[in-house]
Hints:
Layout: E1 2-6, E2 17-22, E3 29-30, E4 35-40, E5 45-49, E6 54-59, E7 66-67, E8 72-78, H1 92-98
Antiparallel strand pairs: 1-8, 2-4, 2-7, 3-6, 4-5, 6-8
Amino acid sequence: MTVEVKVPILPESVADAIIATWHKKPGDSVTREENLVDLETDKVVLEVPSPVDGVLVSIVKQTGDTVTSQELIATIKEGATAAPAKPAAPDAATSESRAPSPASSDQAPS
């Protein structure tokens, strides 16, 4: 199930906030209560935690964007797991072992 991450209700004296820092990117695994993003107001910096365990699917508001109370900022796929990391490129030693040796036994001595 997709869960919406929204800006928490801001205090009455605060009209809006700015997305200061995203701590996760789309595709990252998140755990319940893990800090996803920092919101900066004229008075404080608020941490917005993940409401569920899952994978961050999308970020709707980017760093520097102005947001208001209850505005959608991201979505999480609840219960999902992140895709495994891409395998590393083969190292140089593996590549060299496949290359033909410079001295070939097929040539006759001169």
